UniProtKB/TrEMBL annotation:
Any matching Pfam family: Oxidored_molyb
UniProt-listed InterPro entries: OxRdtase_Mopterin-bd_dom, OxRdtase_Mopterin-bd_sf
The name this protein goes by in its record: Protein-methionine-sulfoxide reductase catalytic subunit MsrP
Domain of life: Bacteria
Top-level EC class as recorded in UniProt: oxidoreductase
Domain Oxidoreductase molybdopterin-binding: 96-252
GO molecular function annotations of the record: oxidoreductase activity
Alphabetized UniProt keyword annotations: Oxidoreductase
EC number(s) from the headed UniProt entry: 1.8.5.-
Organism (species): Helicobacter turcicus
């Protein structure tokens, strides 16, 4: 597959690019996936040391301070565990994230399943510090560990029909109590990107944060991170990725199309029907800050949306 990829200036994130090297003879299958990632992160500890998550990080000419880890891992949205921000941390510890397989199918050369551990051995891990803006008008700054989604797309080899990528969260009501108890949302949670958005180097599949494996409440073992879109696009605990010809409906779009668009692009000029999006509450800090178009990443990605009427939800 041939795609035109722009080179993203590194001013938008600090990059640590590392091949995940597994020593010859490592019994990968015998290692729990989390332990494997923890071992790799430990190996890279020295590299990461200079990037203390609590430091201020330069982004787009300004200084950004990472949200405290305790806050980012205890104030969460993960409706499979309940409505309250504290539910995910209190209830997600039972989520079994190993073994974990990801099914890749749809408009690709050959559908396949890949284990999380195999996938880790095929990609380059990076640390990226991104703004994270929820549609509920709050924000954080998160140091993610993950890999560019385009690496997985290249492994999948989509055919010329593929125009959209759909991600699905594991469906298992035994582990995700809300999936069984009530139809709050049309579970399993699904999210969709256009293929060109998915190929953008800013788009990550995260496996860790704060230099550690992702905790279950933040979407272990694998979640999407699209920093210029509202947080609802960043689907957690993914176990299926499909390449599609026609645009499917994503979970929030199906739930309430007047409030949650397909694109979910951060835009201070487009109010949510029930509140303004002009400013955001920075979790862990006092007061509000102005919200930036495309969450501060406009120079990288605004070309995707030329010609779209920003006042409409698509
Ligand atoms: N993914 C799943 N499967 N279920 C969810 O409820 N919530 C979304 C997104 N991904 C959600 C999800 C929303 S609304 C937000 S704001 C972010 O996850 C929150 O991510 P965080 O808890 O890591 O901050």
């Amino acid at each position: 597959m041939k795609q035109d990829l722009e080179i993203t200036p590194e001013k938008f994130f600090k990059v640590r690019r590392r091949f995940l090297k597994l020593g010859a003879g490592t019994l990968v299958s015998a290692l729990m996936a989390d332990n494997l990632l923890a071992a790799v992160l430990k190996e890279q500890e020295l590299e990461f040391k200079e990037m203390n998550a609590q430091e201020a990080f330069a982004l787009n000419g300004e200084l950004l301070e990472a949200t405290k880890e305790e806050i980012a891992t205890s104030y969460n949205n993960f409706y499979e565990f309940g409505f309250f921000k504290t539910d995910p941390k209190n209830k997600a510890h039972s989520l079994k994230t190993s073994p974990w397989d990801i099914r890749i199918e749809g408009e690709i050369e050959e559908p396949f399943s890949i284990s999380y551990t195999d996938l880790l051995s095929k990609v380059h891990l990076v640390e990226r510090v991104y703004r994270f803006r929820c549609v509920e008008a709050w924000s954080m700054v998160i140091p993610w560990v993950g890999f560019e989604l385009r690496e997985l797309i290249e492994l999948a080899r989509p055919n010329a029909n593929a125009k959209y990528v759909r991600f699905t969260t594991l469906y298992d009501p035994k582990q995700f109590p809300m999936q069984g108890i009530m139809q709050l949302l049309d579970f399993p949670y699904k999210e969709v990107l256009r293929l060109d958005e998915a190929m953008h180097p800013l788009t990550l599949l995260a496996v860790g944060m704060y230099k550690k494996p992702l905790p279950p409440q933040n979407g272990a073992p694998l979640r999407l991170v699209v920093p210029w879109k509202y947080g609802y696009k960043s689907i957690k605990s993914i176990n299926k990725i499909e390449f599609l010809k026609d645009k499917p409906i994503s979970t929030w779009e199906a739930e309430n199309p007047k409030e949650y668009g397909f694109y979910g692009n951060v835009d201070p000029e487009v109010s949510h029907p029930r509140w303004s999006q002009k400013s955001e509450r920075v979790i862990g800090k006092r007061g509000q800050i102005a919200t930036l178009y495309l969450n501060g990443y406009a120079s990288e990605v605004e070309h995707f949306y030329q010609g779209l009427d920003r006042t409409k939800l698509y």
